[in-house]
Amino acid sequence: MKRSIIAILLAAVLLASFAACGNNDTPSNSLTILPPLGEGNTVLTLLITLPDGDSTTQNIRNILTDKATLGEALDEAGLIGRDTTGMVVTVEGITLDWDRDHAYWAFYINGEMAMHGVDDEAITAGTIYGLEYTPG
């Protein structure tokens, strides 16, 4: 119960911050807060930006986990899929292929592009992680 309350509060704060950062020059945005996934003592917040035609669909996932790294938690929750090299190529069931689509999943930490992958990111409370569809 306590974890659910924390997840809902985090999602509400995120929603308010995204609403305050709107830009009328960009396509319309849709933000959906999805139910928490997993079981564990740590709540991590993941903002997923999906390709969606003329608009951007953003899903906020709060994941409950006991895993040490973001990659482990996302694998455990079934949110990502990887290619043979371990690179994240599928998020929320959407698979990107650089050779075919010239698109990839960019990884962000608190809105800044990460300099490493999800497997190298230790989970830190209060951090907002992001996976964003990025056209090439």
Structure description:
- This protein has about 140 residues and is an alpha+beta fold.
- It has one domain: Ferric Hydroxamate Uptake Protein, Chain A, domain 1 (Beta Complex), CATH 2.170.130.
- Helices cover about 25% and strands about 40% of the residues.
- It has helices at about 1-20, 70-75, 100; strands at about 30-35, 40-50, 55-65, 80, 90, 95, 105-110, 110-115, 130-135.
- A six-stranded mixed beta sheet has the order 1-3-2-9-7-8. It has a three-stranded antiparallel beta sheet with strand order 4-5-6.
- About 25% of the residues are buried.
State the helix count: 3
The oligomeric state is: single chain
Uncertain runs: 4-25
| CATH arch. level architecture | Beta Complex
Number of strands: 9
Average predicted local confidence, pLDDT: 83
How much of the sequence lies in strands comes to: 35-45%
- CATH T-level fold name: Ferric Hydroxamate Uptake Protein, Chain A, domain 1
Structural class: alpha+beta
- Sheet with most strands: strand arrangement: 1-3-2-9-7-8
The Cα radius of gyration reads 15 Å
Outline the fold blueprint.
Elements: H1 2-20, E1 29-33, E2 42-52, E3 55-65, H2 70-77, E4 80-82, E5 88-91, E6 94-95, H3 98-101, E7 103-109, E8 112-113, E9 128-135
